Amino acid sequence: MYVSAPQANLRDHVSTVFNRVGTIKNGDKVEVLEHQKRFVRVRTENKIEGWVEIRALATEATFDQFQKMAKENRETPVQGKGSTRTELNMHVTPGRETETLYQLAEGTKVETLKRSATLRATAEEIAAAHAATLAKITGEPSKNAPKKGKKPVQQTAAPARPVPPSQPTPPATAKRDTDSNDSAAPTEEEKPKPMDDWWLVRDPQGHTGWVLARMVDLDIPLDVIQYAEGQRIQAAFVLNTVQDEEKGAIAQYLVLLNDNKDGLPYDFNQVRVFTWNLKKHRYETAYRDRGILGYFPARVSNENFGKDGVQPVFVVRKQNQNGTVTERKFRLFGNVVRQVLAPGEQPDKPAKLPDADKKTQAAKGAKAPAKGAKATAQVHHKKR
Fold first, then answer.
1. Which residue in 6, 65, 344, 349 has its CB near the most CB atoms, within 10 A?
2. Is 363 helix (H, G, I), strand (E, B) or coil?
3. Dist. CA 336–CA 374, nearest whole Å
4. Rounded-to-integer distance, Cα 84 and Cα 59, Å
């Protein structure tokens, strides 16, 4: 078995009073020698023997699952780099009730690889799942876990069902048209169930596992974060760097954003490219595409465009109006972003969120002064 607790003491015997004979730490491999209720006697790789609570250990099957996951995602494109906000358990699958092994200390640097969303497990479901795991190891009978609703896991490899662009998605609390009293409160089943977003992350030791997404802060400059406009930054990539006479080397970014909520069936709904204005010494938006249905992974690289030289390129995956998901390639030339199309290629029509056009028009209207206001200002200027 393997140590899943941050640290555990080895005791000379099972009782309320014991002597500590050694210490084992997270990830250590131990050989199980004997079972006694909820304790096992183990031998460490340093040949130290002692008793430890079985809840501090994970099975070899769980260890093998983590090893398999790390191997399968060795070449998965990194979507961002960040730090853990607090101590975190790495789960073998997305879900608070799923098995864990490795633990991440607060401030651990991680690479984000994939996103998933699940229904949030209740405290009773978590306790029941842990009790069932212990019972399976010890061979004791266990109570049936409380029934849980179907848990959809939206993975980037299998996009969620298309959202029709012409029809708004009804809210989860909407009531059907019936002859009943409209003022009646929605039933428990009609209320939206809380969801959790999860990140598949890799730590500096190469351990790979699922952690709560809200507990990872992406490493992005504050000068870029301030442009998020209330959205959640899902991924960030450095496209290239430019040299500022006052501030030195400055990175230019591709940023993918989404609404600030868990459980959305797509990974991002906005693409933005931030370039650095060398004269004004600040970030500016060189490209924006909002209201889309985007899915990981996104990729960034460099490509030779002949007489134009080597330029940064990025590839994002968008859902089309027909429900398919295809890749779009773009290149950054100076502070201009252009889509890269093969000879004769016709771009697919992307699907749009129902209210995407309204938000775009509202944003443009907020930036541009009203014509009447501009005319009035001119009149006052002439009078003065």
1. 65
2. helix
3. 30
4. 26
**What confidence score (pLDDT) does residue 365 get?**
52
Q: What are the backbone dihedrals phi and psi of residue 97, each rounded to the nearest 5 degrees, phi first?
A: -95, 0
- Whether 342 contacts 332, CB under 8 Å: no
* Strand 39-44 relative to strand 49-53, pairing: antiparallel
Q: Which two tokens stand for residue 148?
A: 């849980």
Q: What one-character-per-residue DSSP string does 17-82 give?
A: S--EEEEEETT-BEEEEEEETTEEEEEETT--EEEEEGGGEE-HHHHHHHHHHHHHTTTPPP-EEE
CA-based radius of gyration for the chain: 27
Q: Where are the domains of the chain?
A: 1-58, 60-165+193-219, 221-371
Residue 334 has what pLDDT?
92
Structural contact between residues 155 and 116, judged by C-beta atoms closer than 8 angstroms: yes
Q: Specify whether domain 1-58 bears CATH 3.40.50.1010.
A: no
Q: What is the pTM of this model?
A: 0.79
Residue 161's contacts (CB-CB under 8 Å, 6 or more residues apart) are 265, 323
